[in-house]
Amino acid sequence: MVRKKSLRVASDKSISHRSVMIASIAKGKTVAKNILFSDDTLRTVKAMQLMGVRINIDSHQVEIDGVSKFGLKEPFDVLDLGNSGTSMRLLSGVLAGQNFLSILTGDNSLKRRPMGRIIQPLKSMGAEILSREGNLAPLAIKGGKLSGISHKMKIASAQVKSAVLLAGLYTQDDVEVVEPYKSRNHTENMLKAFGVDIIENGLSVRLGKNRELNGDLEIEVPADISSAAFFMVFAALKKDFEITLKDVGLNETRSGILDIFNEAGVNYEIKNRRVSGFEEIGDIVVSYSPKLKPFEISGEILPLLIDEIPILSILAVYCDGVSVVKDAHELRKKESDRIKSICEGLKRVGVEVEEFKDGFKVYGKPSHPIKNALIETHNDHRIAMSFLVLSAVSSSNLKISETQSILTSYPNFLDHLSYVNG
Ligand SMILES: O=C(O)C1=C[C@@H](OP(=O)(O)O)[C@@H](O)[C@H](O)C1
Ligand SMILES: C=C(OP(=O)(O)O)C(=O)O
Predict the structure, then answer these.
(1) What residue stretch is flagged as signal peptide (predicted)?
(2) Across 90-197, where does the E strand assignment appear?
(3) Is the CB of 113 within 6 Å of ligand 2?
């Protein structure tokens, strides 16, 4: 008999950060419903509050009293952005346009992540930015009058694209970002919803004439496909099981995992596809998939599933053959070096892997035996959740070095895992 469960996973982290940041610099009040309250998104909330924005938090929604583009106040203290790359990089774009000093810091992981990618374009627009040796945080930003830019990005990064677009709100000059591949477009969608002119042409995004932001909006934040991914893979690997994941964001710049599911032969179906606000959403139904084929992740699909690679590596363990991830240098620059963390964890449980500079291979087999082991998460939430899923679908007993990091993106993950596994 098939066991069926239904779940609404954590709300979208990327959209939650952008709701708070963009509504703060808009005119008027914005209500963001079903926003994610996690350590990362609360860092963004606190930073905006420190700059004088009134944000009312009420069980599942926030009310943001926008102060308009030039209404932010110099923060009285350092902005501590914890573990959150999105907060640091996007906020830097906003701060580049402010005529005051701000100091941005974070935890040991964030202080090791590359910031040159935003420092360089923001400086060439006219912001003054100081950093630690090697373009590392803490950053000191003294913004002010900015000029235009046509920024050709070497890597596909939504955080870099967003930083430049947000800074671009503070000039009337031409501002353009060109990506090598399309990355998530939530900033573009949200700026449009607030009335900003955005001109998209293939891999180029330009700001048009109107760069004023009008709030008085209601935003509905969908469930995060990156969080849903853990339960999608859980369901594919769990015998006689089916899950319905409700209201998941299906934006095509985020849903590369579904293409990999097609390649691997995962049984899934999308129901109730609809548009909610300015994002496409739907319910994803995934069921046990006993015949899994190996897959390859490379090239332009990478940005469309970048945060799902840890959990897809768990799916690869049970595919009948060798799965490959390449062109994924960016994975080494996340909360941990994810190529290293994944390969180390898989080796410990007895899975053959081959690590290379920009990716790895996983030698999978159906009913792969999994050895009991201690998994080092390197304080990376996605590594912790991926191996907890492996532990739940195999009959092994994995010890996970810590689970605290999960609070950054999915505070009730452990409850949801015991619910589906119960
Ligand atoms: O813009 C965003 O919300 C994000 C962009 C991605 O990072 P990059 O822009 O560094 O690729 C992603 O990995 C991160 O989790 C969230
Ligand atoms: C990379 C991630 O987030 P951030 O860059 O915001 O720290 C993530 O959530 O996997």
Answers:
(1) none
(2) 101-105, 128-132, 136-142, 149-152, 175-178
(3) no
Residue 153 token pair? 């990005």
Tell how far the Cα of 350 is from the centroid of ligand 1, in angstroms.
31
Of 193, 220, 247, the position where a domain reaches its end is 220
Q: How many residues does the chain have?
A: 422
Can you name the residues that pair with 175 across neighbouring β-strands?
149
Q: Which domain holds residue 213?
A: 13-220
What are the C-alpha distances in Å from 151 to residues 155, 164, 300?
11, 8, 19
The DSSP call for residue 224 is: P
The domain that contains 213 carries what CATH number?
A: 3.65.10.10
Has 307 been annotated as catalytic? yes
Q: Would you say 209 is a known binding-site residue?
A: no
What is the CB neighbour count within 10 angstroms for residue 108? 8
**Is 307 annotated as ligand-binding?**
yes
Pairing of strands 399-400, 374-375: parallel
CA distance 175 to 268: 41
Among 307, 320, 327, 380, the active-site one is 307
Q: Per residue in 398-410, pLDDT tens?
A: 999 999 999 999 9
Pick the closest to residue 250 from 209, 283, 210 (CA basis): 283
pTM of structure: 0.98
Report the sign of the C-alpha dihedral through residues 356, 359, 363, 367, in that order.
positive
Side chain identity at 216, as an amino acid letter? D
What is the distance in angstroms between the CA of the first residue and the CA of the last residue of the chain?
A: 15
Give the strand order in the sheet containing 175-178.
149-152, 175-178, 204-207, 198-201
User: Amino acid identity, residue 302?
Assistant: L
**336 C-alpha to ligand 2 centroid (Å):** 10
User: Residues with Cβ < 8 Å from 58, sequence gap 6 or more?
Assistant: none
**Is 5 in a helix, a strand, or coil?**
strand
Question: Does ipTM exceed 0.85?
Answer: yes
Q: What is the pLDDT of residues 347-386, one digit of tens each?
A: 999 999 999 999 999 999 999 999 999 999 999 999 999 9
Q: Which amino acid is at 8?
A: R
Number of structural domains in the chain: 2
Cβ contact 249:280 at 8 Å: yes
93 lies in some domain: yes
